[in-house]
Amino acid sequence: MSATTDDQPTLQRSLGLGSVVLTGVAYMAPMIVLGTFGVVAEASNGTVPTAYIVTLIAMLFTAYSYGRMARAYPVSGSAYTYVGKGIGPKLGFLAGWLILLDYFFLPLVIWLIGAAFLSPEFPGVPNWVWILAFIGLTTALNIIGIKVATGVNFVLMAFQILVLVIFVALSFGHFFAGDTGATALTPFFNPQTSVAAISAGAALAAYSFIGFDAVTTLTEETKDPKRNIPRAVVITALIGGVVFIITSYAVELAHPGTHFKETDSAAYEIAMTIGGNLFASLFIAGMVVTQFCSGIAAQATASRLLYAMGRDGVLPKRVFAYVAPKLHTPVFSIALIGIVGLAAVWMSVSTSTSFINFGAFSAFTLVNLSVIVHFWRERSTTDVGSIIGWLIVPLIGAAIDAYLLFSLDTPAHVVGGIWLLLGLGMLAWLTRGFSQAPPEMAIGE
């Protein structure tokens, strides 16, 4: 159990490895590979699976670092906990604040995208109705309990995977049935691509992986967390990567190149080509289910980060550290995520997604660095294996994440910079001008 007062309700250890991995995969939303296919294809000059291979390798470095720190500090809090304990509480607060930019607003974006898919199909229904429906259902499921939420996710994930399998099968069928102009190797490399193009595509493809780290926020609700959480982080990244690579390979065979009527909706155009109107409708249903699954997982993990920060006194403890006695869920934190999601009514997808990745890549970089500092401070051996595992691998991960961070567009840097300044202001207030440590993070089993 988490470290709290004796009489205060705590989170329950009810999740096995499979449930944790399911939550992480749902958070990543496997069908996002189709939602972003046109953009990545354009950037990589038609070598989407190669871009995803490069990105998977890159993300595994960071997943490895998350696993190392999850084994060392098996409590909720993710980057907030790992950087705080690995490097220091002030940087830990900033890491938590930065990843909060990702966690706190990602559900909003997910619900907004889901509504955007439904609105064209039902033009008579206002967009805000769909947003409210997503928020209401998702919030209710998460408040009822994490086991109920993961159970619903299992059913919906099955449908999402079914749509992906049909899409892949139809893509292969279209390739073998006619002359698409592609060969078996065209999706991986063609005369128009280059190392620079593949790198550009990989930078965009990296956004699809954001969320593999979210499973670490479920540490205090996971059985045998020192064993299961590190495994879950890597398995989640691997599953996502394999799905992205296989799917993008099949789609590239069916539609090689970078020419689409609308780049942002390229997958819908391809769905019409390979399966007609009926499958195109099924595809849209799959995308809506994807957003619903991802919304459940995103809200659950964001609320656990708020819970960890509230329990430690960084955020108001009475509100954010409260756990419902019967439901064993942080109801106020869950509700707050839903309330923030209401802002989606007045926002567009482009504006709401521009700043999320700033927080994610900043926190990823700090987590990799925290592994190095933790090793340097706690090292009991300096053999070759330890040097590679605790120094070389996380250093490569930090370099990759820093590159992705600086590759973001100007609006992301501006909004991210403002968020960082607000965090520095709060840290200054909590530490009385940086003269003392912020509230200590509680570590417990």
UniProtKB/TrEMBL annotation:
Its placement in the membrane is given as: Multi-pass membrane protein
Sorted keywords for this record are: Membrane, Transmembrane, Transmembrane helix
Q: Name one GO cellular component term.
A: membrane
Q: Give the subcellular location.
A: Membrane
**Highest taxon of source:** Bacteria
Checking InterPro entries in the record gives: AA-permease/SLC12A_dom (IPR004841), APC_superfamily (IPR050367)
Q: Which GO terms describe its biological process?
A: transmembrane transport
Q: Residue limits of the Amino acid permease/ SLC12A domain?
A: 28-372
Its main subcellular localisation, reduced to a broad class, is: membrane
Q: Which Pfam families match?
A: AA_permease (PF00324)
Q: What is this protein called?
A: Putrescine:hydrogen symporter PuuP
Query: Which species?
Result: Salinisphaera hydrothermalis (strain C41B8)
Phylogenetic placement of the source organism: Bacteria, Pseudomonadati, Pseudomonadota, Gammaproteobacteria, Salinisphaerales
